[in-house]
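fold-stage: in
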Amino acid sequence: MSESNLQTNINVSQITISIIQDGFVAEEPIRDEEDLQRQLVQFLRGSFPKEQIVLNRGKGADIIINHNIAIEVKLSDNLQQLRGLSMQLFDYSKQYSELIVIICDDKKKRPIADIKFDRYINEYKTKANGVIVLNSSIKRQKNKPLVDFDNVDNDTAKLFGEIMPIGDVKNVEYAIKNAGDNAKIDASKILEEFGISKDRIPSLEKTITNLYRAYFFSFKKEKETGEVEYSISGNVSSAFRHHYGSLIGWTTVKNVDKKIMNQAQQDTGLLPK
């Protein structure tokens, strides 16, 4: 089946109707975004067995259907993600023809009042073709760190700690420290390629180096074991984009992230050069 044929088999209305009317019920409590993503993919594959439904891992939207419909999943207990979603949708609108937002909402865990939450939902509706709010309890699972550090590097914690559980922050710090001597990138060359002045954001050069080393560690492990270390690669990608998007531009930060990620994948042999 060709990609062009795939793109005509299903539309946003069918997906949203299936989720709402066919009664998608999440297994509660929802532990994290990945938990809800997996449940949704399983449900959609059962509802639309002829369609190509892909669960992404830190690369673009969360779920892709037939190459052109993107589904982004968020939990309402994470204010940083709710704030950043509109800009994500703006970026995704350039990549996919249709967008769906699915918010798992636990009113007890929401860090904002109903009126502000409703404003976010209405804002998403102006950028997405479909917005679904699922009422479900959220109980995030504590992440077990690879190493039980007493302390985390201040720069890393400052950058990633706002939107990452402490267990994941420690995993990222461990990855940066243990990526190995071969994990090297010319951060100044990356800045020059994208026209970013070193003086404008002094921390960015070091961050690029650390981001690459975290990717390198994650992809090297994936190459060796076949297991995706999403708690590292997915989280550092999201954290990097959220932290620097407003400083260097959302399109630029996305392209810089992709450049670093692709280089790490090639350098570890996960992708051909």
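fold-stage: in (second)
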Amino acid sequence: MWSMSRKDPARRRAVVMSLIALAALFALDALTPRGLAHGAAYVIVMLEIGRTRDLRLIRLFAWLSCLAVLAGYFVSRPGEVSDAMALVNRLMSLFAVVVVSMLISRLAELTLPPPAR
């Protein structure tokens, strides 16, 4: 189900902006030490892709964001906080991404037009 046409410029812009934000956040994540709680910023990606109301895109970017949060733990250098605290920060970020993606998906389901008969 598509709420926006695949050729819709607003949809394309949302996808491109989400990809750019995802890449920029992952690069920032890789450059900063473990323990900084900026993994929750991946919620920005979910909010941007949520504008499309495309359930497949929302789920795809939720998975990509979760993978980026997890990969960010491994590519970032050790910081001043313990690994346990860094893992707690990552788990909180994953929780935020999953909850926001579930809310956006539900909103998209509620606002999609009924199927044509």
